[in-house]
Write a structure and sequence with these properties.
The protein is mainly beta. Helices cover about 0% and strands about 50% of the residues.
Length: about 120
């Protein structure tokens, strides 16, 4: 099983960024995908989850209105898009696969390699 994420991104404040996470080696719709991020010097922060089978999402309240998860089952890929970027959004963004919708960060089955997103003018 592999989750492969897209490459590093540099954005100006106020812009949007879209990061991809492509799954392989398993049935794409059989795992939920969570997105978490880690800012410099900080712990992991949960952003939300998506069910690739039906596109159902659950977002952390902190990000509601600014984040969107979308699946593309034809390519086994999930996308996260974050808008109105600010410097505090600078972080490494990870996708992670889990069997259970309630599994916590320490219970993920598989992780992507991470994508650095830098927000700077």
């Amino acid at each position: 099983v592999q989750l492969v994420q897209s490459g590093a991104e540099l954005r100006n404040p106020g812009a949007s960024v879209k990061v991809s996470c492509k799954g392989s080696g398993y049935t794409f719709t059989s795992y939920y995908i969570d997105w978490v991020r880690q800012a410099p010097g900080q712990g992991l922060e949960w952003m939300g989850r998506i069910d690739p089978e039906d596109g159902g999402t659950k977002y952390a309240q902190k990000f509601q209105g600014r984040v969107s998860f979308t699946p593309d089952t034809s390519t086994s890929t999930v996308y996260v898009e974050l808008s109105s970027l600010r410097s505090e959004d600078t972080a490494v963004y990870y996708c992670a696969a889990k069997r259970s919708p309630i599994a916590s960060i320490d219970q993920y089955d598989y992780w992507g390699q991470g994508t650095q997103v830098t927000v700077s003018s």
